[in-house]
Amino acid sequence: MTEQRTITLAVTGAGGTRMARHVLSALERDDRVAHVDLLVSPNGRKLVAHEFGGAEDGDPVTTLLGRPTGKVTVWDSDTWEGPHTSGSYPSWGMIVVPCSLGTVGRIAQGQATALIERAADICLKERRPLVLCVRETPFNLIHLRNMAQVTEAGGIVYPMIPTYYNLPETVEQMFEEFTERLLGFVGLDQTDYYTWQEGGSRASVERAAARTARGADA
Amino acid sequence: MTTRLVVGMTGASGAPIGVRLLEVLRGLDGVETHLVLSRWARTTIELETPYSAREVAKLADVVYSPGDQAAAVSSGSFPTDGMVIVPCSMKTVAGIRTGYADGLIGRAADVTLKERRRLVLVPRETPLSEVHLDNLLALARMGAVVVPPVPAFYNRPETIDDLVDHLVARVLDQLDLVTDHPGRWTGLSTARGEAGPDAGAVPS
């Protein structure tokens, strides 16, 4: 049995909380992960409620996973509760998905004004993986400057941009591929289904064959 | 008055976005498109879309070879209303940033900047390295508009076509070609009143 890890997952007020569902679900299933701390900002709660339905003050784990689980602890970012305010808490790394550009800006400037920003600050000082899945377009100059600053400090800016070379057929497949690639950045390697190689990834080869078969039927 | 746009497609993933943009531009009155497909754009078009590069080229009004440095769009004396590169590879971003006008796409972008015309880049890459961000930041400082193809989710897209259509509408916004796109955000209170969300099943 390999060492089990504690992962921090944060949800902020940008669109794309469906991606958080995929990431949380994958972490919950993963035996390498002992515990997940789910940090939700007030605007993150608004977006979860908007994108999934339900009340803003509901349990985000139940909303995202469809059921509660003891493997995930929820912390509201506007409280200073929880162990994330200290680097002595042994988190393996942190993913912010979706990550608003306001959050990026506060992290870039060291403005630890709430629990999520403080937890990110600690990841950078402790040299732990910090992955920011930004959801914004276009990027203005301030966004780009802040993202460059976080990258210089060791963070990973991971915009929620799907690939097209693996020939996704549904939005859900795009989420799945993004989640697989993303988790590799916190040391949780996934399958090789989307790995590009000579002749294409397994995903692209299978989907191209299905596309051809559909064309032949038509 | 005709809007004359230069459209470049390069070898990043995301050919469906470029193709859709050309289709929409073709349907707009008073828009004239000048298209350059890089060598690797031709490959990604064939891989990622049901079209051949030849079919995509037919969507434009004028097509140039990617190595044709003598093309009209190589000179600032040829008036255009701007240029969009979609998808835009990180190699192309780097080439434009350093002024290394390699090939017609790089040269036309260089001309667009020097003539103070609108340059819209749709970079398809994730994650972004310090090199990528530094280049994009420098170009933003010079006035280029960086529109990464990050989908919106607040309008609850159900298909990949929904995502692509929204991205194309957002690119057109940057070219002052504001379309009647249904997926625009109108505020949380309005959105709350819309039909109930269908955020898909919990993945197993």
UniProtKB/TrEMBL annotation, chain A:
Coiled coil: none annotated. Keywords: Flavoprotein, FMN, Prenyltransferase, Transferase. Pfam families: Flavoprotein. The keyword Flavoprotein applies. One of its GO terms (molecular function) is prenyltransferase activity. Residues 6-174 form the Flavoprotein domain. The keyword Chaperone does not apply. SUPFAM superfamilies: Homo-oligomeric flavin-containing Cys decarboxylases, HFCD (SSF52507). This is Flavin prenyltransferase UbiX. The lineage of its organism: Bacteria, Bacillati, Actinomycetota, Actinomycetes, Kitasatosporales. The gene is ubiX.
Automatic annotation (TrEMBL), chain B:
Pfam families: Flavoprotein (PF02441). One of its GO terms (molecular function) is flavin prenyltransferase activity. Keywords: Aromatic hydrocarbons catabolism, Detoxification, Flavoprotein, FMN, Prenyltransferase, Transferase. GO terms for biological process: response to toxic substance. It catalyses: dimethylallyl phosphate + FMNH2 = prenylated FMNH2 + phosphate. Residues 4-175 form the Flavoprotein domain. It is an enzyme of class 2 (transferase). Its EC number is 2.5.1.129. FMN binds at residues 11-13, 38, 89-92, 124. Homododecamer. Belongs to the UbiX/PAD1 family. YclB subfamily. Involved in the non-oxidative decarboxylation and detoxification of phenolic derivatives. Flavin prenyltransferase that catalyzes the synthesis of the prenylated FMN cofactor (prenyl-FMN) for phenolic acid decarboxylase. This is Probable UbiX-like flavin prenyltransferase.
